[in-house]
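Hi R.,

Here's the chain you asked about this morning:
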Amino acid sequence: MSRFTEHMAVDVPVRVAYDRWTRFEDFPSFMDGVERVKQLDDRTLEWTASVAGVRKTWTAEIVDQTPDKRIAWKSVDGADNAGAVLFEAAGPATTNLTLTIDAEPDGPIEAAGDALGFLERRVKGDLERFKKLVERTGAGVDGWRGDIKGDEVRPDPSDLPTTTTT
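And the predicted structure, written out as tokens:
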């Protein structure tokens, strides 16, 4: 399995960068080769993408999600991959992103592409496009503010019903 890490500073507050990243179904707007991401529930995503010219589908589960800090995932079927994106404030209006990906090349074409750094360059380009998108759109995009630790999903507090006492 190949592992690589990319870093990128974006000129928006952490909450803005995090909220935009949690809009998984918007990933095709900045991720090269990603045709569709469908969010099945709070922690399950169904992906369709072109990898080395081959259309692939897989299901990934979010295994750790801490608002404004970290989102980690792993595939549960299909293309073998896992990773995490970290969000760190570098000031009131700047966020440092660190994206780490583990991916298993499937077959000789993907292995050759991996050896030549194609996937790593693709991910770097994805982060650059994310930076442009989030800096252009700024605040105003709602994200999911829940918390996930393994199989435990704690919903976004704003989604919980409120009780009133009289």
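The chain has three helices and nine strands.

Let me know if you need anything else.
M.
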